[in-house]
């Protein structure tokens, strides 16, 4: 089945917003065996939306629209769709009650504009939005499906997963397709490719390997589609073949793989800490709290994370972590000596069993010839040993912070595995 | 003049790549008074490209295509365009020499595939690419312009700035268009809409207001287009009218506006701290370092940010911030009393002039009937006063952390304005 994604909003055309929605949707649909054959974006005018919908429906079995469903005046998608589907607008009490409940829960009165939010085209099947106010809508016309979703990313994502994908799979017969994803950190795409070349060459036609690189990480995704006529246990057979390939791939690069599917490095570190009954503290300089944020993004982190200090100044490194001033003067804060002292100091300051410390030059300024922007030292210590690593990343501040986060968590992971 | 952007490549449809190119192009064209009226993406097949070009040309004066010009086999844009414009492919010696020079400069032999790169449709005006191998192409057909550019971002950007925009401005008379964006925090779209309803109703036809919501923030964008025949000082006149509307809008909601254009809240807070010569420290519990990360994402933050403590446990709140154990036992860590004590403790612990503290229940677990998940207390203090706020957000951990970040920085901003 072919799908067309239509995004609505002037902000997309003038480039004020980068369209991440349609990329996310393309990925999810693809993972579920549905093919996106076209995407388009139109502005917030009735004429543009009408033409966009009509063109989109010409070559696709289903059109998924995002944007233009909010309560404000520039959001005209809903009325335009009602017109296109020749449908009356009717007040939808269930939706109004849901929105009312949403406001009650957060202790606010329901704004008058919400009556409009709950007024919907009669012909639409309403897709309840549990994470926002604007519902999704599902229309059928001449054998095709037209779906309208809000443009706010997490609302769109919720509706795609809870409503749209399951309904599309039911409506159109989806072919068995399975995925397995292995997660690697701290090694580049081409180096990984070299190590698994022979594996790639022996893969059968119906199993594909994709490299999905992100900052400091590469996900390796194996996708299997059922090759022949569909038999009763097609999915089980396909899963067995795919798992055998996954095991073969894992055996080639066990040192690079930290997890599977959607696990994050912070989650893996958290699980290891729980298993070993240890508490981790962090002392950050150039990452400014980013690593603590990664760790505490995981629910239940309080069980193994007492806290963190962000010591941006020399004074704080001395005061909160007990790093000797003489050491800072002699070696500088961006040094092997400094991060070792910070990690050891953090063990005591934070009452931790294991401590991570980071000090570097995030940029864009502050570099010197022997310590250029992007230089980062990190250490992990417990009461018996310390490991230290130095990396030189690039010139972009945010990228340096994010890359450091990945490398630092991976260093903690390896330290815990050897503990 | 109306422009359509057509991006070519399977990787865009399956979401393997987020399309940042077309957002950048939209911004640049818009800044130059050209209107992007549509965008579309098609896959790497001849049929899809042909249909995409034809549809794109239907409503636009110019079509700008990106992607599909590289030397590899899946890049078929060039041949497809030659066919569509009924043009022979001819070897282009100037282009070949330019590519040869490019390889000589980096000390490599020119690969054989480069003869193909220099073989171009005869009817194309060649746009020389000084930063890569694939040239851009400019076609004219039935009064319309069709431009094909490589998909590599910096090559596309070079060609847009050096060739495409100047040529388009010459070819079509560009109409003045101007934008002003006001940034608001901590108020919902519909409540803002209610407060500025009368303003919206009085806007002239040629000035539009758009609401661009994100988590905890709404950007208000005013866009003005020149309405009549173009006069010499059209742009100045338009700017004056737009700025008058911007001032009127600002006057209605001064309490909600924290900045303009692309500033972030963390930047505004940083500027205020620099202006007032004050240092900010943060003591975070449920946000786990996220606010410190936001603050330190801004280059130069070390001038006003000595550091932060993340005190996840009662023990750390007591040890690092001096919060009395009795207070924590009596009121709990998620309380007005606790955040006040944390903020006062942080002033001393971090040697700060102003301190922010946050304590709450990020979720998904840990809520109680009187302190549900999403409950967050925050305080800002200096040595003379403390302000405290309580919010109840939702059930999603990451959203709660991010929303708290916005609300907390906005509280610091308001505190500094009154200092």
Task: Please explain how this structure is put together.
2 copies of one chain form a homodimer. The first copy, chain A, is α/β, with parallel strands linked by helices. Chain A folds into 3 domains: 2-171, Molybdenum Cofactor Biosythetic Enzyme, Chain A; 184-260, Alpha-Beta Plaits; 266-417, Alpha-Beta Complex (Maf protein), CATH 3.90.950.20. Chain A has helices at 10-13, 21-31, 46-59, 77-84, 93-105, 114-117, 153-171, 189-195, 197-202, 234-252, 265-276, 290-296, 314-321, 325-331, 336-349, 397-417; strands at 2-8, 35-42, 62-66, 89-91, 119-121, 125-127, 136-141, 144-149, 177-185, 207-214, 217-225, 257-260, 280-284, 307-311, 354-360, 375-381, 386-392. The first copy, chain A, has a 6-stranded mixed beta sheet, sandwiched between helices. A 5-stranded mixed beta sheet of chain A has the order 14-13-15-16-17, with helices on both faces. In chain A, strands 10-11-9-12 form a 4-stranded antiparallel beta sheet. In chain A, helix 2 packs parallel to helix 7 (153-171) and helix 11 (265-276) runs parallel beside helix 16 (397-417). The radius of gyration of chain A is 26 Å and the shape is globular. The mean pLDDT of chain A is 93. The interface between A and B is large, with 89 and 95 residues.
């Amino acid at each position: 089945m072919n799908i067309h994604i239509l995004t609505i909003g002037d902000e997309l055309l003038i480039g004020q917003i980068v369209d991440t929605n349609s990329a996310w949707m393309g990925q999810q649909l693809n993972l579920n065996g549905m093919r996106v054959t076209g995407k388009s974006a139109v502005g917030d005018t009735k004429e543009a939306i009408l033409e966009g919908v009509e063109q989109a429906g010409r070559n696709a079995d289903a059109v998924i629209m995002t944007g233009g469903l909010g309560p404000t005046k520039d959001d005209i998608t809903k009325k335009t769709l009602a017109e296109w589907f020749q449908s009356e607008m009717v007040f939808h009490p269930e939706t109004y009650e849901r929105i009312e409940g949403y406001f009650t829960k957060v202790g606010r009165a329901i704004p008058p504009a919400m009556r409009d939010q709950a007024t919907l085209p009669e012909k639409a099947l309403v897709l309840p939005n549990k994470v926002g106010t604007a519902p999704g809508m599902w229309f059928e016309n001449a054998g095709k499906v037209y779906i309208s979703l809000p443009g706010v990313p997490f609302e769109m994502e919720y509706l795609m997963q809870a409503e749209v994908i399951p309904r599309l799979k039911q409506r159109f017969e989806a072919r068995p397709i399975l995925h397995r994803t292995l997660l690697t950190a701290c090694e580049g795409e081409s180096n990984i490719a070299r190590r698994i070349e022979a594996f790639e060459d022996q893969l059968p036609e119906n199993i594909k390997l994709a490299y999905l690189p992100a900052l400091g990480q590469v996900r390796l995704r194996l996708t299997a589609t059922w090759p022949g006529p569909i038999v009763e246990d097609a999915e089980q057979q396909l899963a067995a073949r795919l798992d055998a390939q996954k095991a073969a791939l894992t055996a080639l690069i066990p040192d690079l793989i930290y997890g599977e599917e959607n696990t994050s490095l912070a989650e893996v570190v958290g699980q290891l800490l729980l298993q070993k009954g240890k508490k981790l503290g962090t002392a950050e300089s150039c990452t400014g709290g980013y690593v603590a944020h990664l760790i505490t993004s995981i629910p239940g982190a309080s069980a193994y994370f007492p806290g963190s200090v962000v010591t941006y100044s020399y004074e704080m490194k001395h005061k909160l972590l007990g790093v000797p001033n003489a050491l800072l003067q002699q070696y500088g804060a961006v040094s092997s000596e400094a991060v070792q002292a910070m990690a050891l100091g953090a063990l005591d300051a934070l009452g931790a069993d294991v401590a991570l410390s980071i000090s570097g030059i995030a940029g864009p300024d502050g570099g010197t010839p022997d310590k250029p922007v992007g230089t980062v030292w990190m250490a992990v210590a417990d009461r018996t040993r310390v490991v230290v690593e130095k990396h030189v990343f690039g010139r972009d501040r945010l990228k340096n912070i994010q890359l450091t986060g990945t490398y630092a968590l991976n260093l903690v992971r390896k330290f815990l595995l050897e503990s």
